[in-house]
Design goal:
2 domains; ATPase-coupled transmembrane transporter activity; six-stranded mixed beta sheet; cell membrane; four-stranded antiparallel beta sheet; 276 residues; alpha/beta; Rossmann fold
Length: 276
């Protein structure tokens, strides 16, 4: 598959001789959902800022869509990426939801005659059409994130970065946003890069990059990375709930496979029950 993001020997330091990101390398394939997973302070949000050119790397290479990030290519690289931050309040510019979605379109020089159609199209995609004339400050956390995503989608990026985008939401809001983003990944072939410490979100991705103190500890499919209980817990993270239940059932003599996906575990348990 085509690589849409390539990180090669990347290092960054906020303070001289104190590396926040220490010589890391990984790549992301086009159309996949990748999670960078790590505890607070592991350096994962720094990677998002480096990808956007918000921070200047100390050494290494960042290549997005075949273009190496430099001062000269910064705007071209940024045009491929949309980012949704942890606190959506920091992303609102307009007095209404409509104005806010329009802001990104104006910056990309979309013709005014086309704007209303684009705004309404993407407001519908995130189920926020009826709120177009509402003030963003009056919305719930989940609704604000939907608006932020609509604004990003309207600019048609190839990549969406979610930088702890669900960490401030309640369980319902978190589930809504995760479902929406996964649907966009499948339907629109948008590459998703999720920056999170939430193990359950990571369990639903295609690929995981496990980070600690600026170093890559492990990479691979979620089922290969997240079942390494000792390694995960040593990084102040927790293993997925479904995996805990799988191990608990096995300890009780119930023969089930190890799972990190709750739905797959429930399906096997239902099959076992039906055979009784």
């Amino acid at each position: 598959m085509e690589k849409i993001i390539e990180i090669k020997d990347l290092s960054f330091e906020y303070k001289e001789d104190v590396k926040t990101i220490d010589n890391i390398s990984f790549s992301i394939e086009k159309g996949t959902y990748t999670t960078i997973l790590g505890h607070n302070g592991s350096g994962k949000s720094t990677i998002a800022k480096l990808l956007m050119g918000l921070l200047e790397k100390k050494s290494g290479h960042i290549i997005v869509g075949g273009i190496e990030l430099t001062e000269e290519t910064l705007s071209e690289v940024r045009s491929q990426i949309g980012i949704v931050f942890q606190n959506p309040d920091n992303q609102f510019i307009g007095a209404t939801v409509r104005d806010d979605i329009a802001f990104g379109l104006e910056n990309t020089c979309v013709e005014p005659s086309l704007m209303d159609g684009i705004i309404e199209e993407y407001a519908k995609k995130v189920n926020m059409y009826e709120f177009l004339d509402h003030e963003p400050t009056k919305l719930s956390g989940g609704q604000k994130q939907r608006v932020a995503i609509a604004g990003i989608l309207a600019m048609s990026p190839s990549i969406i970065i979610l930088d702890e985008a669900t960490s401030m939401l309640d369980p319902k809001g978190k589930k809504e946003i995760n479902s929406l983003v996964h649907q966009l990944n499948k339907d629109k072939d948008i590459t998703i890069l999720s920056i999170t410490h939430d193990i359950e979100e990571a369990a639903l991705s295609d690929y995981v990059v496990l980070l600690s103190d600026g170093h890559i500890i492990d990479t691979g499919k979620p089922e290969d990375v997240l079942m390494k209980q000792k390694e995960i817990e040593s990084l102040a993270l927790d293993v997925p709930f479904a995996y805990k239940i799988s191990k608990g059932l096995q300890a009780q003599g119930i023969k089930v496979n190890n799972y990190i996906d709750r739905e797959k575990l429930v399906k096997e348990l239902c099959q076992l029950h039906s055979k009784k």
